């Protein structure tokens, strides 16, 4: 077998679509193609390597792997999942060793990408027609017909086929990852969590280290200061605390270029994506792949950016909806407070204390099936509606500085069921958990007692909604510590003694447990004078 490469004018057409614009750069950064020679004749290995040693395809050279039996070949394939081409002999340790290896590669290893060229010096042992029909191989050659020229042709054709199959598989896997990542991002309701999720998904899509930065800018203010860093990971994690790129002038210039030109840029290793979004906001994402991106990866990133833009639009609309709901809740709370100025700050403290207690209960794994992300996001705001029913309470009772008589107390207690009814009617207009649905539960149940002696329905234990059980503790805790027209504030010690003493009777013990830990560890979110 000749050592000379094939004449340039005979087979150069095979390489017409493989010439890159910068082959020298690619040669330094891209991995070579792996070609495995499986043959029990050492001279065949030597001749094949000599014939193909100077061959390059898409700027990449060829690395040769060798095995001298079917079993040895299987071990090499197991160790290298990126072998592009196998030159496989048929007769080795047995008459069909090569055929069995081809079958195990396809079936046992589920490898459908590697191209397998069967070459044999004894075609009688493996008739071509039978082999092509019953074994998943890609070409069949006798060793006598594999001249240097034909070997070159077969190799380039196989590498091209392998490259196309890998591209298709990368597309398939990439699109699957994009669909999965988009679904995950649609579940995120925080902008910074969204940004961190984008960086994770870029890393997973390209199978690269999680070294990245995501910045946001308001497109309506192009002359504003440096873009804001929403998320940074890996080697850039320290920038998350800084919040801007003042200490990274080159990166700052590249981000500015992307925002100005509103287009992605791949200047390896400084690759960046541009993602337009709603409300004049725009994102730029920097990441660092180990080698220049290929066409498939660039196309996948374009699709990914479109999905990210749609996911952000979903997040924006979700936040707008929540803001509208929150504004409604605040308006309702203001309506209830308008006639009772002494409790104006009370509802704000109740909101902060409720959020703190539910966070503590989540940490302590209290009621994990009930304390969902949605529940945690909404209960604090919903808690400010706990006394909305007092809009129906007459002034002479609501504002009475002294103790209420039995008839007055009966009227006062109506505020729980009235509040529940007012909010329940509105909550029906909103699907799922909302501020209004939780507010309805809280308004109706925050005067029920854990032992069933409360009002208005004498509910007991866990038949009282968890939201109401939490706000009941918070409401009493704040009321005892605060000055009211009919009482002076209690001390924290006396207040906690009162609440602890009623755990299991008036209050849910697990809610009391969370409050006790917040007090003991001095982690209350509000101050009492």
From TrEMBL:
Keyword Transferase: no
Keyword Iron-sulfur belongs to the record: no
Pfam families recorded: DUF3369, HD_5
Disordered, as annotated region: 1-21
CDD domains found in the cross-reference section: HDc
Modified residues (4-aspartylphosphate): 89
Domain HD-GYP, residue spans: 321-529
InterPro entries found in the cross-reference section: CheY-like_superfamily, Cyclic_di-GMP/3'3'-cGAMP_PDE, DUF3369, HD/PDEase_dom, HD_GYP_dom, Sig_transdc_resp-reg_receiver
Acidic residues bias (residue ranges): 8-21
SMART domains: HDc
Keywords: Phosphoprotein
Domain Response regulatory: 34-158
Full protein name: DUF3369 domain-containing protein
Organism: Chromobacterium amazonense
């Amino acid at each position: 077998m000749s050592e000379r490469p094939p004449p340039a004018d005979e087979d150069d057409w095979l390489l017409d679509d493989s010439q890159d614009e910068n082959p020298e750069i690619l040669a330094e950064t891209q991995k070579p193609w792996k070609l495995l020679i499986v043959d029990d004749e050492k001279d065949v290995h030597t001749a094949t390597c000599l014939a193909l040693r100077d061959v390059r395809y898409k700027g990449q050279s060829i690395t040769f792997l060798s095995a001298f039996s079917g079993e040895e070949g299987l071990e090499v394939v197991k160790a290298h999942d990126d072998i592009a081409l196998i030159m496989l002999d048929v007769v080795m340790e047995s008459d069909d060793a090569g055929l069995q290896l081809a079958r195990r590669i396809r079936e046992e290893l589920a490898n459908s990408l590697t191209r397998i060229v069967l070459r044999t010096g004894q075609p009688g042992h493996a008739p071509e027609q039978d082999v092509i029909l019953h074994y998943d191989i890609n070409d069949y050659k006798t060793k006598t017909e594999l001249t240097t020229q034909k070997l070159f042709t077969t190799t380039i054709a196989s590498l091209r086929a392998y490259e196309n199959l890998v591209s298709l598989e990368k597309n398939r896997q990439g699109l699957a990852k994009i669909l999965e990542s988009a679904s995950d991002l649609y579940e995120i309701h925080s902008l910074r969590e969204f940004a961190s999720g984008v960086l994770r998904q870029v890393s997973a899509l390209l199978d690269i280290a999680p070294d990245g930065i995501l910045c946001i800018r308001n497109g309506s203010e192009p002359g504003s200061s440096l873009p804001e860093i929403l998320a940074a990971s890996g080697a850039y994690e320290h920038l998350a605390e800084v919040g801007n790129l003042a200490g990274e002038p080159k990166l700052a210039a590249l981000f500015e270029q992307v925002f100005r030109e509103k287009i992605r840029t791949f200047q390896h290793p400084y690759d960046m994506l541009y993602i337009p979004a709603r409300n004049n906001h725009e994102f730029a994402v920097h990441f660092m792949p180990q080698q220049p991106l290929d066409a498939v990866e660039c196309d996948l990133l374009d699709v990914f950016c479109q999905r990210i833009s749609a996911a952000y639009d979903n997040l924006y609309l979700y936040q707008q909806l929540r803001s509208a709901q929150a504004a409604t809740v605040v308006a309702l709370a203001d309506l209830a407070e308008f006639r009772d100025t002494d409790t104006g700050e009370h509802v704000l403290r109740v909101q902060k204390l409720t959020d703190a207690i539910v966070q503590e209960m989540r940490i302590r794994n209290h009621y994990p099936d009930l304390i969902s992300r949605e529940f945690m996001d909404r209960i604090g705001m919903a808690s400010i509606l706990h006394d909305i029913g007092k809009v129906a309470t007459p002034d002479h009772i609501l504002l009475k500085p002294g103790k209420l008589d039995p008839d007055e107390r009966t009227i006062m207690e109506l505020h729980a069921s009235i509040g529940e009814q007012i909010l329940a009617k509105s909550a029906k207009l909103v699907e799922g958990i909302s501020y209004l649905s939780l507010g309805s539960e809280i308004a109706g149940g925050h005067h029920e007692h854990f032992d069933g002696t409360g009002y208005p329905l004498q509910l007991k234990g866990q038949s009282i909604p968890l939201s109401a059980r939490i706000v009941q503790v918070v409401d009493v805790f704040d009321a005892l510590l605060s000055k009211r027209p009919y009482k002076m504030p209690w001390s924290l010690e006396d207040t906690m003694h009162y609440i602890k003493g009623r755990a299991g009777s008036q209050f849910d013990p697990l809610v009391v447990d969370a409050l006790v830990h917040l007090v003991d560890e001095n982690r209350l979110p509000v101050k009492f004078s």
